[in-house]
Model the fold of this input.
Amino acid sequence: MQLWLIPILPLAGFILNGVFGRKLSKAVINTIAVGSVLLSFLWVLKTLSALGAFSGGLEQTYKEQYFSWIQSGALNIGVDFAVDRLTAVWLMVVTGVGLLIHIYATGYMAHEGGYYRFFAYLNLFMFFMLVLVLGANFLLLFVGWEGVGLCSYLLIGFYFLEKFATDAGNKAFIVNRIGDFGFVLAIFLIGNHFKTLDFTTVMEQVKTMPIESSIGWMTAIGLLLLVGATGKSAQIPLYVWLPDAMAGPTPVSALIHAATMVTAGIYMIARSAQIYLHSSMALDLVAIIGIATAFVAATIGLCQTDIKKVFAYSTVSQLGYMFVGLGTGAFSAGVFPVMTHAFFKALLFLGAGSVIHALSGEQELSKMGGLRKKIPITFITLMCAGVAIAGVPPFSGFHSKDAILAAAYEHAPWMYWVGVFTAGMTAFYVFRALFLCFFGEYRGDLDTSHGHDAHGHDAHDAHGGHGHSGIHESPAVMWIPLAILALLSLGGGYIDIPKYLAPMFGDPHEGEAWLMYVSVASGLAGIGIAAWFYLLSPAVPEALARGFATPYRWLLNKYFVDEFYDSTVVNPMIDGSRVFLWKVADVRIIDGAVNGAGTVARATGSLLRLAQSGYIRNYAAWVVGGSILVIAYMGLRGSF
Amino acid sequence: MPPMPQLSLSGVVPFNWYLILSVILFALGVAGFLFRRNIITVFMSIELMLNAVNLTFIAFSYKMGQNDGHIFSFFVMVVAAAEAAVGLAIILTVFKNRQTLEIDEVSSLNN
Amino acid sequence: MDVILFLLFAGVAVICAINLVLQTHPISSALSLVGVMGALALIYLQLGGEFIAMAQLIVYAGAVMVLFVFVIMLLNEGKERKMQRKLWVRWGGPPLLFVFVAIMATVVEHFLPPSEGVTFGAFTKGTAEAIGTKLFTVYLLPFEVTSVLILIAIVGAIVLARKEID
Done:
């Protein structure tokens, strides 16, 4: 079935654009970049339909083995790709949504420098993400994992002349690395325990293990995998990189930090479902971390003023929901939102990009307003995304959120109530952003008849102005993907992922009907309150902000988590490195040893050259002395 | 100490006496070499040492009944002559450059 | 008779050698060395080395020492200056010398058991004919090589001692 073509096509795009891109015209770069992803998507469709994925087939894993990579004793790791239903979901999302974002990016990045570099990195990211989901063993998953981390770093720091962008890239990479450390330890434990890293083999072995005797190992592995997942999927405590990652261009935020890379943690946990089912403690922790993250991120999102930051915290919050789904044992409920979230979150980000593009680089909500007449297509598509994420039936977000909340109620009712409250907050802050952006009076600086360049502020993506006149709608190459994503956001809920994944994870449970009504009501209430605050009486939120000044300050500064990390982890480490590792270990010990060897050599030489006195009689005396010794020795020994 | 042959003023000369004479002359040559400061005197002490060695060769040649020792001694004398010629030429050059014949003054190849 | 002669000549040799070491003016040392060589030549004669004794007198004492004397007179440096030597050198040197001689004597006595002594006339192969035969047959190669050596020495001495051409 040639599964290897799926990731190789974007890799070929990366190589062509990366090596020759400097000399190619924009049209050729576009063709290579978008074309490679398009071909990959088509090949995915062909492969999946041939395997019967769309027609009820693919109950067993389909595996292709290419070559043996590591062979060491009993450990035999090959480069194998495998497709089962779980992989099929991710393949469709990654290549499909990826294709739409690539098309959008050709319009968005049209005026930016480093055009070919951007698309080369984007293709490289697609390659690594596809390796991640297609890999049939933990090591290939890890290769893809690291690779997408690398591409994330490269793309966040795409505007590398801005310090805040490169700082954000560093932060993303380093925080991810902490998670990766946990993941690597888990891989070691798995390899040590099961003597193999292959998914099917490991899961078969785990299934047959009795729970009581193996719970220690499984818990350890599960917790370490969870550490990796919190890093990549931005959960507490390693979520701090995601809001800063908004320094990258908006298509990057949409593709990597909304639709694909951040779901890698979800994929990994779903893949290791058997391990988690054998350790209730690890599974509980997944759910607790998920619900805590969802709640905390939503509270922070209430007060943010940068439109991309609002959506970033929304991503963190929605990922928390997916973790709750996984953590309650309803793995298919955790995977369902991956698809719906990809639709509406990518749409939200791309739409935000469209707004930013229209405003020539402005990202602050306080400088927007009243844009619905000027950029109508963006407005309509973003409203579709808004109702989807708020969980209004019958749109996609409602179906996925309902599945999770039902499973949460089964597991622990308090999680359900926290989840409902968070859903209300989600609806509130998304519509707050939308109302502030599209309704009311325009509060910005751009002359609405003809515009001028606005410079990007710090902590924004530095998408600059381009001298067009007026606030205008985006070109077709940008709004067509928006429209497609809007349709998917509205209707995507009817793709019944839980039933599709039932052969792997068990039948989805149906919750009681009143659970559904309460969560819908919470969402609608959120929209209503947002409308009241920002459409009808704008004075109310300001009064609330003044009245609850301290909580407001805490929320606005994201609970000072970054400052806390800085003071407890980052600064001690930097100081420790400088004072101890540099000044003591490097300068005094290592340099001292090396220089010391030289000094010793020189001292020995100085000592030895005292024998060269220049006086012939001294030399003669040494000769006589030596010969006397030899004669004495001969005399005593009797012979030589 | 093994008993020596009859020591009388009218007998044969004990063989070891020649070797001991050679040792004494050699030691005196070494002493002159180490303790004198004039280069030429040092050179002459070297010649004294060579003579002592010659004596040893001749003595052993007598003892072994061969005349190969005499040949060695002959060659030693030839080489000593050549060495004396070249050495004295060097001494002359040193004197021309340093205006001194003290062996301690010629020490610029020191550390 | 042999003993008396040996002791006489040996005494002359030793006294001249001591004189060589103790004299301050190099010319005195040179003349002492001539005395040593003469005494040694007579001892060689007693050991049956006629050719060598004559060669010693003619070549060594007669040519090499004359060369020494020429150079001493040419340079005309005069007496050695008296130098302040360290105490341990002045007082320790001669005793060490005695020690050295004593060690060597012991070694000699130990290794060479006393055999028959030396009489004048007992060794007959030291004639010029015998040595000449040996020299031109068995030791022909060293003979030729030393000829080359002498040539090199001549050339070297001429090069070293010539005047600089200004």
Observations:
- The two ends of chain B are 48 Å apart (CA to CA).
- Chain B touches chain A through twelve residues (CB under 8 Å).
- Helices of chain B lie at 15-35, 39-64, 68-98.
- Residues 15-98 of chain B form a domain with the Helix Hairpins fold (CATH 1.10.287.3510).
